[in-house]
Amino acid sequence: MTSFGKGAAGGAPGYPALPDAMAPTFAALGDPTRLKLVAALCDGMAHSIVELTQVAGMSRQGVTKHLHVLANAGVVSDLKVGRERLWQLEGARIDEARLQLDTIAREWEQALLRLKSFVEKDD
């Protein structure tokens, strides 16, 4: 069980500490356009910038900027096939983010159970 409070990773008091390495991942996923791109890449296939511009409904330059943010956070990677650059999801990073969210959810559930027990004890 992870404890609440300021941990080694520098969590704010009263909140679970998350590894600092996860902050860029959550920041990158916090944009609606980037979430659309991630959803499109969830099919497990590599996609061209042309395909992804259709999903995002914006210019190639705009999509490329979003893809670079996702790549810097380790969420996507690119590979060159001939003259074309294809983008793919890095599932391991998404799994790490999911595990962190699962940890937070468990801790909130435990906190709510403690609160419920405290409130019911006074009845």
Automatic annotation (TrEMBL):
Residues spanning the signal sequence:
none
SUPFAM superfamilies cross-referenced by the UniProt entry: Winged helix' DNA-binding domain
Q: Which PROSITE patterns match?
A: HTH_ARSR_2
Which molecular function terms from Gene Ontology are attached?
DNA-binding transcription factor activity
What domain of life does the native source organism fall in?
Answer: Bacteria
Identify the SMART domains for this entry. Answer: HTH_ARSR
Chain ranges of the HTH arsR-type domain: 14-109
The family database entries (InterPro entries) matched by this protein are listed as:
ArsR-like_HTH, HTH_ArsR_DNA-bd_dom, WH-like_DNA-bd_sf, WH_DNA-bd_sf
Which CDD domains has this protein been placed in? HTH_ARSR (cd00090)
Q: Which Pfam families match?
A: HTH_20 (PF12840)
Protein name (Swiss-Prot/TrEMBL): Transcriptional regulator
